[in-house]
Amino acid sequence: MKVLVVGSGGREHALCWALRKSPKCDALYCAPGNAGIRDVAECVPISAEDTDALTAWAVANAIDLVVVGPEGPLVAGLVDKLEAAGIAAFGPNAAAARLEGSKGFMKDVLARHGIPTAWYGRFTDLATAKAFVRDKGGPIVVKTDGLAAGKGVILCQTVAEAEAALDVMMADKAFGDAGNEVVIEEFLHGEEASFFALVDGDTAVPLVAAQDHKAVGDGDTGPNTGGMGAYSPAPVVDDAMVARVMKDCILPTVHGMKADGTPYKGVLFCGLMISPDGVPKVLEYNVRFGDPECQVLMARLESDALELLDAAARGRLSGVELAWRDDTALVVVMAARGYPGAYMKGTEIRGLEAANAVDGVTVFHAGTKAEGDTVVATGGRVLGVTAIGATVSEAQARAYQAVDALDWPEGFCRRDIGWRAVAREKAGE
Ligand code: AMP
Ligand code: GLY
């Protein structure tokens, strides 16, 4: 098969790395890719957002399967265009991608099909939104309806904070059109986990779960990021929890989307909040793999990734079984100093070979580009140093050994990725 992966992040590097291992993979391309991806796939210089050019290229090159990494092109209808051109694609069409593209749409789907989630209201009028906040009181959560690069969620402790957040979104338009509508919802407490299922329109198959670290600083302090690290398995998602989430959340969503006339296929990424007494609620759906969660999922996957993604794209998931390594996989994200604020670009990264040479380690590239023989940082999140180990502690130690083998003074990382799981392991749970 000839396969095209769309995207340029750590998630796409991990997907390419996993797809490349398939005996069925005859040719692998990635648009636009990055300096790490070029080691496993041929990079094609087309932007992930240029849906017309991607479709034309896939047709001209007789691609058998397109795997779409990021949400932007999914929401913009890349899969619709590919399928209209007769090309199989992994990922939802635009109508189903609204699960991530519009939080209001997602909340309505959950409500309509009785899926546990925070109570909510949808608003396009500032005064009505503020009245709702005053009525409900704090703490409360304010979200832009549309995509805002992971920044359109403001957790508010008080009514005053929520009113200020509404001003920023709806009056100042700090997130552009994404803030034309807002969702205001219940503040949920508990432990978060990232749950993934492959879906083919009818059938859903759970993948392993992961936990990520959103805050930029050690001890989960500082502003939120796209994710500074992740690990899998997630101890809070045991077999009983997988069964419960499938029954209460994933399957009603998949069946509901089909009944609504917007069948879902691709990977369904469910952000869960698990209450202290063990009740899972859906915080959000994403219509793609998490980044950096994908890196640890691919590190643990033993099954043929190409067979799986192709089966999801073609409605053939029924009966498919997955094999995983029992080991823990853990990824430490290296970001450019300043991230998630303004950060330096174009600095040189050395020591990648030494880092990759550490036992059990693969360094996935996120924001890098090749300049001759050197690799330079181009993004905020730049590398995902991923390690596999028999225990969480071992995976963590290997990942940090590889981090220390890198020579990139302009980069930084959190030093405590996996702390919850390490503490549980040490406590013998
Ligand atoms: P989202 O982009 O919707 O995933 O939100 C980003 C982060 O905000 C989540 O990972 C949670 O940590 C937090 N969050 C979102 N919604 C809620 C909620 N209703 N209650 C508590 N925390 C939330
Ligand atoms: N790591 C969370 C996300 O990809 O949205």
Description:
The relative contact order is 0.13. This protein has helices at residues 10-20, 51-60, 71-75, 78-84, 94-101, 103-112, 126-136, 159-171, 239-259, 293-300, 305-313, 352-356, 392-405, 419-426, and strands at residues 2-7, 27-32, 42-43, 65-68, 88-90, 120-123, 140-144, 153-156, 182-186, 191-200, 204-206, 211-212, 215-217, 221-224, 229-232, 265-274, 280-286, 328-336, 348-349, 361-365, 368-371, 374-377, 381-389, 411-412. It has 429 residues and is of the alpha+beta class. The model has no long low-confidence stretch (mean pLDDT 96). It starts with a strand and ends with a helix. The chain has 14 helices and 24 strands. α5 (94-101) packs across α6 (103-112) and α7 (126-136) runs antiparallel to α8 (159-171). Strands 12, 15, 18, 20, 23 and 24 form a 6-stranded antiparallel β-sheet that branches. The chain has a 5-stranded parallel β-sheet with strand order 3-2-1-4-5, with helices on both faces. Residues 212, 226-227, 286, 290-291, 293 line the site of glycine.
